[in-house]
Amino acid sequence: MEKLTHFNEEGRAQMVDVSGKPETVRTAIAQSSIEVNGTIYEHISKNKVKKGDVLAVAQVAGIMAAKKTWDIIPMCHPIPLKGINISFEWHEEKDDHKQLVIKASVKTIGNTGVEMEALTAVSAAALTVYDMCKSIDKGMVIGPTFLMEKTGGVSSQDYRR
Amino acid sequence: MEKLTHFNEEGRAQMVDVSGKPETVRTAIAQSSIEVNGTIYEHISKNKVKKGDVLAVAQVAGIMAAKKTWDIIPMCHPIPLKGINISFEWHEEKDDHKQLVIKASVKTIGNTGVEMEALTAVSAAALTVYDMCKSIDKGMVIGPTFLMEKTGGVSSQDYRR
Amino acid sequence: MEKLTHFNEEGRAQMVDVSGKPETVRTAIAQSSIEVNGTIYEHISKNKVKKGDVLAVAQVAGIMAAKKTWDIIPMCHPIPLKGINISFEWHEEKDDHKQLVIKASVKTIGNTGVEMEALTAVSAAALTVYDMCKSIDKGMVIGPTFLMEKTGGVSSQDYRR
Amino acid sequence: MEKLTHFNEEGRAQMVDVSGKPETVRTAIAQSSIEVNGTIYEHISKNKVKKGDVLAVAQVAGIMAAKKTWDIIPMCHPIPLKGINISFEWHEEKDDHKQLVIKASVKTIGNTGVEMEALTAVSAAALTVYDMCKSIDKGMVIGPTFLMEKTGGVSSQDYRR
Amino acid sequence: MEKLTHFNEEGRAQMVDVSGKPETVRTAIAQSSIEVNGTIYEHISKNKVKKGDVLAVAQVAGIMAAKKTWDIIPMCHPIPLKGINISFEWHEEKDDHKQLVIKASVKTIGNTGVEMEALTAVSAAALTVYDMCKSIDKGMVIGPTFLMEKTGGVSSQDYRR
Amino acid sequence: MEKLTHFNEEGRAQMVDVSGKPETVRTAIAQSSIEVNGTIYEHISKNKVKKGDVLAVAQVAGIMAAKKTWDIIPMCHPIPLKGINISFEWHEEKDDHKQLVIKASVKTIGNTGVEMEALTAVSAAALTVYDMCKSIDKGMVIGPTFLMEKTGGVSSQDYRR
Fold this sequence. Notes:
homohexamer, alpha+beta, Alpha-Beta Plaits, 4 helices, 6 strands
């Protein structure tokens, strides 16, 4: 049976030793989303072309959170990230609801992957949208949140959903 | 039309002035979940009764993240949290998949609510489970993540999903 | 001769005991600025009405920095801020240069003032503008940075520049 | 048998709900120490009267660490500290060794005590002395570290070593 | 006389330039301990085999603190840690007291050593045990805390206690 | 027209991908200053030769802030800094005023420059001086703050003011 690599001989959690893994370019893309009602959709999308820009704040939040993933997820390695990009897309839902799809792509040169950084970025961005719109409706739903793609390291470990 | 309260007169984001709101006991409960395959379920649930405890780490992650919500979500107020509790529950899914349901309840005495703290706690806990099990399967899916309940402040603003 | 209040009997720095001071509404307004050339001015101000918004990022930076003033300025008290607002204004300078004036107003209910939070907010906002425009010109100059106004606490200590 | 208050009904850790406890002035004093050899003692104590001041850096470290105790000790509450003071004293040891005794006193007005803040302050100060002198001797020993005194809250819970 | 390397020409502290030192695998092992009474020993060791796991929390605390050593110890370099492992062992003391011995081993590939990271990890773990058991007895004593071993860099600088 | 490199195709901010840039030694020197009245000058400069040392605290603040530049300036890369040095100099101003000039030099080996780290260091140091002297006079003025020099990377991009 495959082993959970985050545990030491006592069965307790550890930050796995990755010093023997190759230092290569590594990328990851993750996706989250948040479903909002029509009123919120109007606010966010109209504000975008005017001034108050929910998505600009959400994106800063996502980028800053990616950089502190190691401080949020206990067993994550501190990784000197080389690039982070976050993008948004609106999808239609039933009724007047819309789904804001959030994608983050993260890149580093290092000994271990950046899946958690990408997943943390989209999570923080989605939470920020919730925060900024919750005065209108607290019923917004975040997710599903998942890894879309991962490259680098031993190539057989590349992942594509 | 209802207004997004996070914007100032220039239409830019601000941290809303809550100094005029009453200082009362405020609580929030949020829920997230993560769907895992049978192998991961075995690992997590067996480890729980033995030693290596994924959920113990996830829960510490959730509690610590709740305390730094103000540093992750840009427009959130720093709030001196008075209590945080995180609990877990397994639900059956189709095939051999299981859904780990994560609930966080947060309490404070303050001028503004703690919805974001509860939502951040469950998000960080779910991300931590993903991190600790991703060596087995990267296809785990996080969410839906949502607010279940909020009390305190002006009572007409209490929320129950 | 007036005494520096940040030192203990050994002459070393301390975080002054403010537990005996009244808990009142306290506000502070600080100002900084950054002088940029015409090209940068074009970029920032045109982007503002389109999409890429330097000032939106600068403002998020200012708000988030205000919240961690206690972690940047060693002898500052951790203060639960109740509101932060940042605004921008362009002034003409000689040649084609423009000065971006940045103001932050901060509010709390507490035992000590929020001057440092306002000063830290405008400093971080100005540094962020520098960061985002430095690929065009590294000669931008930040400052002067100063306190404009402070209210709350013992009223005789109110300050207006 | 007395109960560990940091565990919830599932037997997992929680940040205990203190919202029902009285908001009172609370203080704590903790002590740590570091034993150094004669050469290091000379460096530290001579530098003190000249310029390079190990103890000044150690003290800033202690004060800043006290403020982030909640981010270092997982189940600690975020507490708005009102005052922190750190002092140093040299004690004779056998041979030419000296013991640097470090005391921190911390004060707040809140629902829970500040023992951990005082203990974290002296620990960080001692670690900083180690860091700044380790190029001379890596054999320095830190501790014992303990709580000396605690007041506030329900008075029957005052503690004096 | 050997020089303290943390001071610049003005005699003030600096973060020493290590860019000329070789980038090699570097490890450090540090030890701390905490002496507890019989009741606390029962709680911790019984909980370990059941559910509420003080040591699991302490260990997460140690790992997370190691990662932010650079933010706790002022002159420490930010170091991208590659692995952290923490282990526990009970030793008998007089009466019914027991000593919980905590060891942390830390590994990196870098220009400077990781002694402070290992020392910070065991200190944070010991403080966390204190925090979680202090409702039973505030008289617990932490330490001695010291470096056990250091390898890497110029080999003549390896250290073994 | 030159392009602002911090924006993605949607015109939103991103953390620019620097993984393709060469990993070289990079340095930056920045300067800030703070103008103080004669009383404050007396306090700071006399304390320096005695015990309470404003500049020692300011310098620790500058060094620690440089290390968290990536957490203060949203689009900055996390950079493993290799050395930081801060120095002070007094200049005469009209009346009895003096200007404290603060310089920070920062060094790394990496894919991107450290201008922001040097600018953040001097800003935090100046703010700390303000904080520690504001009980005497709130009219102190910080700045101008600017980049003096930058080396490393593609040599044609070296900058000297």
